[in-house]
Design goal:
By secondary structure, this protein is an alpha/beta fold. It has 20 helices and 30 strands. The structure holds 5'-O-(acetylsulfamoyl)adenosine.
């Protein structure tokens, strides 16, 4: 039973085995890891409640599998390489031995501050090594990490801290982002005015910013590290104990905390990494995501480390100091597997070929894409200009909720087709459903992408609200996990994921709920009502288009627009800034009061020729007004 597949034929036979007898299949895969107690039962599941449990009764610690297990053979190999935002700063690294020591020390710091198994620890940090170390330190002692992307506002941070009643927050003085410095600690101080559950804050300085340190609450990480030793045995965790919470947006309400558990997540993160990226001993792997997103969790930290890989953590952005930065780093570290997002590819494509022409990219073997559909033009540019027609391009489809990659080629072993994610990984039983929930067999017909059998890293619950998990993912179609995406299959069974079919916008690879943005808009004093839709955007994939009704006493003006944008930045963060705001006097509503987003989407796309049936609207004249309106 191979852990790493080495031909397309082998993929096909593994896939067959995995569906014929999923439990035997995953039993074999899971045996490649280190367990302190073997599991008694492989799987228990039903998708109604839902209840899914993998490797029941098994005990393990993911950090023993990520670190300790490699010390004998790879102790002096680099585990993490850190590349600064500043291209002139020397990069640093940690070998597996050093990572072991740092994680153990940090784990002892957490313990010395009263953090125990099951406690929630929140992170609001840039991409520095202390982030990776501290996340693993949580896992070492069984504390549940909740990493909040540091582009979110203090309000959004506070919401997430409160939702999970986090006991500790780990942060930095600031964040270096291109030529800017973001005052992280100041934003944290603001958030913590309203978060009584936080008992202590650990701070790492990396920006040279002036900050306030609140006595008795705030502690400097280097000072705390001085006080502890490097001996910290790993806490034996039950397979189904939570490993982390990660918040993600949905079509309704506030972002929800997706919960992943220790055993199943470990098994699938490691397995999918090995197979999709076809990592070989001594390769250097680089994923450009931020650890604030699931891609960073699974494919900067856990997946690579589970495989004893060398993984790069990059603090910067693609366009600083110029659009050649990615290719500089690839050349400098002789990167073998490179994993990024279509929005970055499109942005760099627009900057011209001079940025990579003088860089040596010949180390690349696999180049990956994630986060949104990759359009054909970007696919070809990536394949031809970066991969030189000589690399495997893997278009990886997955979600925060799936924990790991679901649809993708396996390195060079799978056929490639522009804009197609391709085939499901072994163990992943994807289907396309029609409106009525019937499985579509035919090719080239669009349907709802769903999964009909559990895989080890499937979402277990949404933190503190299991009902919501059921409603969002398991109630649309009985017996299926519903992804929220539309897709089709070609004559060879290769999937092409088209995009969200719900009210979720994918803007530069960031997931945002239209309701979430509307709620933020409605916080503005003069905003009476709003409706938000996505529209095609050449770089971002989707842009955010807001239709806004303001108080009738107010004049629409650039100032109001600006203050509305400020409200969004403070409610959610700069990632949710609308690209377009159109003031309107009414919204197209049905008699039952529902906004007809279909019409607004058409108008936002600039396609007003055929808006379809508007007869069910209370007042069809608003459509004419909106069509003729200005942005
Ligand atoms: C990993 C991640 C999930 C949503 C998902 C899709 C979209 C992601 C692809 C893609 C087409 C892809 N997690 N998506 N990857 N669409 N092709 N290769 O992005 O939870 O933040 O977003 O992203 O709509 O549902 S996420």
């Amino acid at each position: 039973m191979p852990f790493k597949i080495s031909s397309f034929e082998e993929y096909q036979s593994e896939y067959k085995k995995s569906t014929a007898n999923p439990e035997a299949f995953w039993d074999d895969i899971a045996k490649h890891y280190q367990w302190s107690k073997p599991w008694d039962k492989t799987l228990e599941w039903e998708f109604k409640t839902p209840k899914v449990k993998w490797f029941l009764g098994g005990k393990l610690n993911i950090t023993e599998n990520c670190i300790d297990r490699h010390l004998k053979d790879k102790g002096d190999q680099k585990a993490l390489i850190w590349e600064s935002n500043d291209p002139n700063e020397e990069s640093t690294s940690l070998t597996y031995n050093q990572l072991h020591q740092e994680v153990c020390k940090m784990a002892n710091v957490l313990k010395s501050h009263g953090i125990k198994k099951g406690d929630r620890v929140c992170f609001y940090m840039p991409m520095i090594l202390e982030l990776g170390i501290s996340v693993l330190a949580c896992a070492r002692i069984g504390a549940i990490h909740s990493v909040v992307f540091a582009g979110f506002s203090s309000k959004a941070l506070a919401d997430r801290i409160k939702d999970a009643s986090c006991k500790m927050l780990i942060t930095s003085d600031g964040i270096n982002r291109g030529g800017k410095k973001i005052p992280a600690k100041t934003l944290v101080d603001e958030a913590l005015k309203d978060c009584p559950s936080i008992e202590s804050v650990l701070v790492k300085r990396c920006c040279g910013l002036e900050i306030n340190m609140k006595a008795g609450r705030d502690f400097e990480i280097p000072v705390e590290l001085e006080k502890v030793n490097a001996d910290c045995p790993a806490e034996p965790m039950d397979s189904e104990d939570p490993l982390f919470i990660l918040y993600t947006s949905g079509s309704t309400g506030k972002p929800k905390g997706v919960v992943h558990t220790c055993g199943g997540y470990m098994v699938y993160a490691g397995y999918s990494f090995a197979n999709v990226f076809q990592y070989e001993n001594k390769d250097v792997y680089w994923c450009t995501a931020d650890i604030g997103w699931i891609t960073g969790h699974s494919y900067i930290l856990y997946g690579p480390l589970l495989n004893g890989a060398t993984s790069i953590m990059f603090e910067g952005i693609p366009t600083f100091p110029d659009a050649g930065r990615f290719w500089d780093v690839v050349d400098k570290h002789k990167v073998n597997q490179f994993y990024t997002a279509p929005t970055a590819i499109r942005a760099l494509m627009a900057c011209g070929d001079q940025h990579f022409e003088n860089k040596n990219l010949s180390s690349l073997k696999v180049i990956g894409s994630v986060g949104e559909p990759i359009n054909e033009e970007a696919w070809h540019w990536y394949n031809d200009k970066i991969g030189k027609g000589n690399c495997a391009l893997v278009d990886t489809w997955w979600q925060t909720e799936t924990g790991g990659i679901m649809l993708s080629g396996l390195g060079k072993h799978s056929p490639m087709k522009p804009s197609h994610a391709g085939y499901p990984l072994p163990g992943i039983q994807t289907v396309l459903l029609d409106q009525s929930g019937k499985e579509i067999e035919a090719n080239q017909q669009e349907g709802y992408l769903a999964v009909k059998f559990p895989w080890p890293s499937i979402i277990r619950t949404t933190y503190g609200d299991h009902e919501r998990c059921k409603n969002v993912y398991f109630s649309h179609y009985d017996g299926y996990y519903f992804t929220g995406d539309g897709a089709k299959r070609d004559e060879n069974g290769m999937y092409r994921v088209i995009g969200r079919v719900d009210d979720v916008i994918n803007c530069s690879g960031h997931r945002l709920g239209t309701a979430e943005v509307e709620d933020a808009l409605d916080e503005h004093e003069e905003v009476v009502e709003s409706a938000v839709v996505g529209y095609p955007h050449p770089i971002k994939g989707q842009g955010i288009y807001a239709f806004v009704i303001i108080d009738s006493k107010m004049q629409a003006s650039e100032e109001i627009k600006k203050s509305i944008i400020d409200t969004i930045i403070s409610e959610i963060g700069p990632i949710a800034k609308p690209d377009k705001i159109q003031f309107v006097s009414g919204l197209p509503k049905t008699r039952s009061g529902k906004i007809m987003r279909r019409i607004l989407r058409k108008i936002a796309e600039g396609d007003t020729s055929n808006l379809g049936d508007v007869s069910t609207l209370i007042d069809p004249t608003v459509v004419e007004e909106i069509k003729g309106g200005k942005v």
